[in-house]
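Work Package 4 report. The design task specified in the project plan requires that, given a folded chain encoded as C-alpha coordinates, an amino acid be chosen for each position. We show below one input record used in the internal validation round.
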Protein backbone atom coordinates (compact mmCIF):
# COMPACT_ATOMS: atom_id res chain seq x y z
CA UNK A 1 0.00 0.00 0.00
CA UNK A 2 1.24 3.49 -0.87
CA UNK A 3 2.40 5.79 1.87
CA UNK A 4 0.57 9.14 1.65
CA UNK A 5 2.63 12.24 2.38
CA UNK A 6 1.24 15.78 2.45
CA UNK A 7 3.25 18.79 1.27
CA UNK A 8 2.01 22.08 2.72
CA UNK A 9 3.22 25.28 1.06
CA UNK A 10 2.67 28.40 3.19
CA UNK A 11 3.40 31.70 1.50
CA UNK A 12 2.21 34.82 -0.28
CA UNK A 13 1.27 35.57 -3.90
CA UNK A 14 4.53 34.06 -5.21
CA UNK A 15 3.62 30.76 -3.57
CA UNK A 16 0.07 31.12 -4.90
CA UNK A 17 1.48 31.60 -8.42
CA UNK A 18 0.23 35.08 -9.26
CA UNK A 19 1.11 36.48 -12.72
CA UNK A 20 1.57 33.00 -14.19
CA UNK A 21 -1.33 32.35 -16.54
CA UNK A 22 0.53 29.50 -18.21
CA UNK A 23 1.60 27.09 -15.46
CA UNK A 24 -0.05 28.51 -12.33
CA UNK A 25 3.23 29.04 -10.48
CA UNK A 26 6.01 26.87 -9.06
CA UNK A 27 3.88 24.99 -6.52
CA UNK A 28 1.31 24.01 -9.13
CA UNK A 29 4.06 22.77 -11.46
CA UNK A 30 5.32 20.54 -8.63
CA UNK A 31 1.76 19.43 -7.84
CA UNK A 32 1.18 18.28 -11.42
CA UNK A 33 4.52 16.48 -11.42
CA UNK A 34 3.65 14.61 -8.21
CA UNK A 35 0.27 13.61 -9.68
CA UNK A 36 1.91 12.33 -12.88
CA UNK A 37 4.27 10.22 -10.78
CA UNK A 38 1.42 8.75 -8.69
CA UNK A 39 1.45 5.33 -10.38
CA UNK A 40 5.24 4.99 -10.50
CA UNK A 41 6.54 5.58 -6.97
CA UNK A 42 5.90 3.74 -3.73
CA UNK A 43 4.64 6.94 -2.10
CA UNK A 44 1.85 9.34 -2.98
CA UNK A 45 2.72 12.99 -2.36
CA UNK A 46 -0.26 15.36 -2.22
CA UNK A 47 0.66 19.03 -2.39
CA UNK A 48 -1.47 21.84 -0.94
CA UNK A 49 -0.90 25.38 -2.19
CA UNK A 50 -1.64 27.56 0.85
CA UNK A 51 -0.34 30.83 -0.60
CA UNK A 52 -2.31 34.03 0.03
CA UNK A 53 -1.50 37.22 -1.90
CA UNK A 54 -0.16 40.07 0.23
CA UNK A 55 0.25 37.97 3.36
CA UNK A 56 3.00 38.64 5.91
CA UNK A 57 4.21 36.38 8.72
CA UNK A 58 1.64 38.09 10.95
CA UNK A 59 -1.16 36.59 8.84
CA UNK A 60 0.64 33.25 8.68
CA UNK A 61 0.71 32.83 12.45
CA UNK A 62 -3.04 33.43 12.72
CA UNK A 63 -3.92 30.57 10.39
CA UNK A 64 -0.98 28.18 10.48
CA UNK A 65 -2.04 26.00 13.46
CA UNK A 66 -5.50 25.50 11.91
CA UNK A 67 -4.15 24.75 8.42
CA UNK A 68 -1.65 22.23 9.80
CA UNK A 69 -4.29 20.44 11.88
CA UNK A 70 -6.70 20.30 8.93
CA UNK A 71 -4.14 18.76 6.56
CA UNK A 72 -2.19 16.35 8.71
CA UNK A 73 -1.14 13.05 7.19
CA UNK A 74 -0.26 10.49 9.90
CA UNK A 75 2.24 9.06 7.39
CA UNK A 76 4.23 12.26 7.07
CA UNK A 77 4.10 15.96 6.24
CA UNK A 78 6.50 18.30 4.44
CA UNK A 79 6.15 21.98 5.37
CA UNK A 80 7.42 24.87 3.24
CA UNK A 81 7.52 28.40 4.72
CA UNK A 82 7.96 31.12 2.07
CA UNK A 83 7.67 34.63 3.54
CA UNK A 84 9.38 37.99 3.65
CA UNK A 85 8.56 39.69 0.34
CA UNK A 86 5.64 41.53 1.99
CA UNK A 87 7.10 41.73 5.50
CA UNK A 88 9.99 43.90 4.25
CA UNK A 89 7.72 46.35 2.41
CA UNK A 90 7.96 49.95 3.62
CA UNK A 91 4.61 51.71 3.76
CA UNK A 92 3.86 55.05 5.43
CA UNK A 93 7.46 55.24 6.62
CA UNK A 94 7.82 51.86 8.31
CA UNK A 95 8.17 48.20 7.40
CA UNK A 96 5.08 46.02 7.59
CA UNK A 97 7.04 43.57 9.75
CA UNK A 98 10.38 44.79 11.11
CA UNK A 99 13.41 42.43 10.89
CA UNK A 100 13.44 41.37 14.54
CA UNK A 101 9.71 40.74 14.54
CA UNK A 102 10.11 38.78 11.29
CA UNK A 103 12.77 36.61 12.96
CA UNK A 104 10.46 36.03 15.94
CA UNK A 105 7.51 35.15 13.68
CA UNK A 106 9.57 32.68 11.61
CA UNK A 107 10.73 31.06 14.86
CA UNK A 108 7.10 30.65 15.99
CA UNK A 109 6.10 29.30 12.55
CA UNK A 110 8.88 26.70 12.79
CA UNK A 111 7.62 25.67 16.24
CA UNK A 112 4.11 25.20 14.82
CA UNK A 113 5.46 23.17 11.89
CA UNK A 114 7.57 20.96 14.16
CA UNK A 115 4.42 19.67 15.85
CA UNK A 116 3.44 18.02 12.56
CA UNK A 117 6.63 17.56 10.58
CA UNK A 118 10.33 16.79 10.76
CA UNK A 119 10.76 17.94 7.14
CA UNK A 120 10.58 21.74 7.16
CA UNK A 121 11.96 24.00 4.42
CA UNK A 122 12.52 27.75 4.62
CA UNK A 123 12.22 29.44 1.23
CA UNK A 124 14.23 32.51 0.24
CA UNK A 125 12.75 35.80 -0.94
CA UNK A 126 13.29 36.58 -4.63
CA UNK A 127 15.34 39.55 -5.84
CA UNK A 128 13.38 42.43 -7.30
CA UNK A 129 13.95 44.14 -10.64
CA UNK A 130 16.27 47.13 -10.84
CA UNK A 131 13.39 49.28 -12.11
CA UNK A 132 11.41 48.90 -8.86
CA UNK A 133 14.32 48.78 -6.41
CA UNK A 134 13.67 51.67 -4.00
CA UNK A 135 10.74 52.98 -6.05
CA UNK A 136 7.42 53.61 -4.34
CA UNK A 137 4.44 52.00 -6.10
CA UNK A 138 1.11 53.83 -6.66
CA UNK A 139 -0.17 51.82 -3.67
CA UNK A 140 2.54 53.44 -1.52
CA UNK A 141 4.71 50.31 -1.15
CA UNK A 142 8.49 50.37 -1.38
CA UNK A 143 10.91 47.44 -1.62
CA UNK A 144 14.70 47.33 -1.93
CA UNK A 145 17.11 44.54 -2.81
CA UNK A 146 19.18 45.52 0.24
CA UNK A 147 16.26 44.55 2.46
CA UNK A 148 15.68 41.35 0.46
CA UNK A 149 19.26 40.34 1.35
CA UNK A 150 18.77 41.33 4.98
CA UNK A 151 15.59 39.28 5.39
CA UNK A 152 17.07 36.35 3.46
CA UNK A 153 19.98 36.32 5.92
CA UNK A 154 17.47 35.99 8.76
CA UNK A 155 15.89 33.02 6.96
CA UNK A 156 19.31 31.42 6.36
CA UNK A 157 20.26 31.89 10.03
CA UNK A 158 16.95 30.42 11.20
CA UNK A 159 17.39 27.43 8.90
CA UNK A 160 20.90 26.84 10.27
CA UNK A 161 19.88 27.34 13.92
CA UNK A 162 17.04 24.85 13.57
CA UNK A 163 18.82 22.34 11.29
CA UNK A 164 16.32 22.99 8.48
CA UNK A 165 16.89 23.11 4.74
CA UNK A 166 16.96 26.46 2.93
CA UNK A 167 15.68 26.70 -0.63
CA UNK A 168 17.71 29.43 -2.32
CA UNK A 169 15.43 30.76 -5.06
CA UNK A 170 17.25 34.10 -4.80
CA UNK A 171 20.46 32.49 -6.06
CA UNK A 172 18.58 30.65 -8.83
CA UNK A 173 16.93 33.84 -10.14
CA UNK A 174 19.27 36.77 -9.39
CA UNK A 175 21.60 36.54 -12.38
CA UNK A 176 18.77 36.56 -14.92
CA UNK A 177 16.20 38.41 -12.83
CA UNK A 178 15.41 41.01 -15.49
CA UNK A 179 14.13 38.29 -17.83
CA UNK A 180 12.64 36.00 -15.15
CA UNK A 181 10.50 38.62 -13.40
CA UNK A 182 7.16 39.90 -14.65
CA UNK A 183 6.36 43.50 -15.59
CA UNK A 184 5.76 44.51 -11.97
CA UNK A 185 9.39 43.62 -11.14
CA UNK A 186 8.40 41.60 -8.06
CA UNK A 187 6.56 38.47 -9.20
CA UNK A 188 8.21 35.93 -11.52
CA UNK A 189 6.86 35.38 -15.02
CA UNK A 190 6.19 31.84 -16.29
CA UNK A 191 9.92 31.38 -17.05
CA UNK A 192 10.84 32.48 -13.54
CA UNK A 193 8.31 30.14 -11.97
CA UNK A 194 9.73 27.37 -14.16
CA UNK A 195 13.22 27.98 -12.76
CA UNK A 196 11.81 27.90 -9.22
CA UNK A 197 10.02 24.60 -9.86
CA UNK A 198 13.17 23.11 -11.37
CA UNK A 199 15.15 24.18 -8.29
CA UNK A 200 12.63 22.62 -5.88
CA UNK A 201 11.93 19.47 -7.92
CA UNK A 202 14.72 17.33 -6.38
CA UNK A 203 13.14 17.91 -2.95
CA UNK A 204 9.75 16.54 -4.08
CA UNK A 205 11.48 13.77 -6.03
CA UNK A 206 13.06 12.26 -2.94
CA UNK A 207 9.66 11.81 -1.26
CA UNK A 208 8.18 10.10 -4.33
CA UNK A 209 10.67 7.22 -4.49
Amino acid sequence: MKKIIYGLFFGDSITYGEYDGVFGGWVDILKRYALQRFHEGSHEVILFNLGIGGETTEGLLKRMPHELAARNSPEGNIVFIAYGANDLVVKDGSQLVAPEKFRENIKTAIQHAKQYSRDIYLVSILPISQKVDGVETPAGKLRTNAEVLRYNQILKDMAEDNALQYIDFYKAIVEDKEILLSEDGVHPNEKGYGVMAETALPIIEKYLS
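The radius of gyration is 17 Å. Validation will be extended to a larger panel in the next phase.
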